[in-house]
């Protein structure tokens, strides 16, 4: 278990730093497109989680620290949108389309509302 925890922590540091550097680079080069960093990170993260998940399905013998370090650590630090996308696809793949649609709607709308509420809380 300790190796898995360390792999997630190291992967998380790597993913977080990658996101930080991409964000800074885009802000420095295209400040009017500040949102581009989030968009790029989320799309790349979704692509990578799909590739990794597919590879790990084909190769179940890959050790848990490696799987968790890459998916939870690196991609979790890089973007949580990738996990959200994978969870939605897994619900669809398992025949739970209504749950997937509900999860998608609550996540997006709920996330926006929660962010708005948090911002409102700072106005008091």
From TrEMBL:
Alphabetical UniProt keywords: Cell inner membrane, Cell membrane, Ion channel, Ion transport, Membrane, Metal-binding, Sodium, Transmembrane, Transmembrane helix, Transport
Keyword Ion transport: yes
GO BP field: cellular detoxification of fluoride
GO annotation, cellular component aspect: plasma membrane
Pfam entry (one): CRCB
Protein localization: Cell membrane
Residue ranges crossing the lipid bilayer per the database entry: 34-56, 68-86, 98-121
Activity regulation (record text): Na(+) is not transported, but it plays an essential structural role and its presence is essential for fluoride channel function.
InterPro entries xref list: FluC (IPR003691)
First-listed, main subcellular location of the protein, grouped into a coarse class: membrane
The keyword Membrane belongs to this UniProt entry's keyword annotation: yes
Topological category with respect to the lipid bilayer: Multi-pass membrane protein
Protein residues bound to Na(+): 76, 79
GO molecular-function term, one example from the UniProt record: fluoride channel activity
Reactions listed under catalytic activity: fluoride(in) = fluoride(out)
Main function: Fluoride-specific ion channel. Important for reducing fluoride concentration in the cell, thus reducing its toxicity.
PANTHER family: FLUORIDE EXPORT PROTEIN 1-RELATED
Similarity-based family: Belongs to the fluoride channel Fluc/FEX (TC 1.A.43) family.
Name of the featured protein: Fluoride-specific ion channel FluC
Species of provenance: Phytopseudomonas punonensis
